[in-house]
Specification:
There is one protein chain. The mean pLDDT is 97. By secondary structure, the chain is mainly α. It is 60% helix and 0% strand. The longest helix has 15 residues.
Length: 147
């Protein structure tokens, strides 16, 4: 069901690719076990199935969506909200999916098309070198929760 929802959201936002869907599924598997955790453990700031931090959400709003108001309006309409707030990441799957996709969309490197490529891409561009996650964990969680 989550894969289907991700596909529908991305298609309606004109941001769909099969690799984007697989990358988002892998990200959700790694970050929250596909939604088992919707708030970061240990009182951290990350929210939702993609465990996005409010600062990242605000950065996307200020430095990306600000210049693409039509896309922001599409997300608002699809999410059924009056606006976009970081708190929505926790309980509105459309907002969480859209912002995870926007986060990756800002990367100039093309999304790879294999699990190990998704793992590297996630580590470099989502988790970063400062994050505790590893590519091997991503691969294991992808196989466990997605395949």
């Amino acid at each position: 069901q989550l894969k289907n929802l991700i596909e529908r959201v991305l298609k309606q936002l004109d941001l769909y690719s099969e690799d984007a869907v697989n990358l988002l599924l892998g990200t959700a598997a790694q970050e929250s076990r596909l939604g088992e955790y919707i708030r970061q453990l240990g009182n951290g700031p990350a929210l939702g199935i993609f465990q996005m931090e409010p600062t990242t959400f605000r950065d996307i709003m200020a430095n990306y969506l600000k210049y693409k108001p039509g896309l922001g309006q599409k997300i608002i309409a699809l999410a059924g909200t009056n606006g976009l707030k970081s708190e929505y990441l926790e309980f509105n799957l459309v907002v969480a999916i859209a912002f995870a996709r926007l986060h990756y969309l800002r990367v100039s490197e093309k999304i790879p098309n294999m699990i190990d490529g998704y793992a590297r891409y996630w580590k470099v561009y989502y988790n970063t070198c400062k994050g505790k996650g590893t590519e091997q964990e991503f691969i294991e969680n992808y196989k466990r929760f997605v395949l």
